[in-house]
Amino acid sequence: MLTQRSRYALRAMLFLAKQPRDGAPTPMTRIAAEANVPRKFLELILADLREAGFILSTRGKMGGYRLARPNHLISLGEIVRVIEGPLALVPCVSRTAYRPCLDCKDEASCAIRHAMARVRDETARILDGTSLADATAEDLAAA
Predict the structure, then answer these.
(1) Per-residue pLDDT at 61
(2) Which keywords does UniProt give here (predicted)?
(3) How far apart are the C-alpha atoms of 131 and 123, rounded to whole Å?
(4) Cβ–Cβ under 8 Å, residues 41 and 8
(5) Residues 127, 78: Cα–Cα separation, whole Å
(6) What is the pLDDT of residues 47-80, one digit of tens each?
(7) Nearest-angstrom CA–CA distance, 140 and 143
(8) Confidence band of 130 (pLDDT split at 50, 70, 90)
(9) By C-alpha distance, which of 43, 36, 31, 39 is closest to 7?
(10) With contact defined as beta carbons under 8 Å apart, do 26 and 64 qualify?
(11) What are the CA-CA distances from residue 86 to residues 21, 28, 105, 131 (Å)?
(12) What DSSP string runs through the chain?
C-alpha cells in the first residue's frame, strides 16, 4: 500500500505536470493548496524530489517549482521509488535492497517469494510505464 507521503508526492508532481513548461515557477503554497498537501510535509517531499532531479526550484518572490524534465520522461515508478524505496513487498524479491527473509527455509522453492516477484514485476511494469503525461492525460479524459 502506498504511504500518504507517496500519495502527496504523486499529487504534487501531477499538479506540476499540468503547469506550462515555459511558465513561471509554481509557488509551494499553490502546490500545497491545489494538491491538498500540508505545506510543512510538502517542503520535505519537494526537497527529496529536487534532490532526485525531478524538479527545479527557484528562490525569491517569484520563485517556486517546476519539472526538471518533460512530463513524459518522468514515470510514476521513479517518483514512488524516491519516496518509498524499492517496490518489492518483501525484501527477498527486491532488485535494489535484497535481503533474505529470516523465516524462510528454502528461498528457491518459496511460493510466497515467487508470487511476490510477480507482483513486483507487474507493479514496476505499470508504474514505470505510466508517465506524468500519461496520468494527466487520463485525468483530462476522465473529466
Answers:
(1) 86
(2) DNA-binding
(3) 14
(4) yes
(5) 8
(6) 999 999 999 999 988 899 999 999 999 999 999 9
(7) 5
(8) very high
(9) 36
(10) yes
(11) 30, 27, 23, 18
(12) ---HHHHHHHHHHHHHHTS-TTSPPBPHHHHHHHHT--HHHHHHHHHHHHHTTSEEEE-STT-EEEESS-GGG-BHHHHHHHHH----SSGGG-SSS----TT-S-GGG-HHHHHHHHHHHHHHHHHHT-BHHHHHHHHHHH-
**CB 57 within 8 Å of CB 12:** no
- The C-alpha cell of 103 is what? 523465516
Provide the residue count of the chain. 143
For residues 81, 90, 109, 118, the Cα torsion angle rounded to the nearest 10 degrees is: -40
pLDDT of amino acid 143: 47
Report the candidate in 53, 47, 50, 28 with the shortest Cα–Cα distance to residue 38.
28
Distance between CA atoms of residues 137 and 5, nearest Å: 23
Give 67-123 pLDDT, tens digit per residue. 999 999 999 999 999 999 888 888 888 888 888 888 888 888 889 889 999 999 999
Question: At residue 90, what is the residue type?
Answer: V
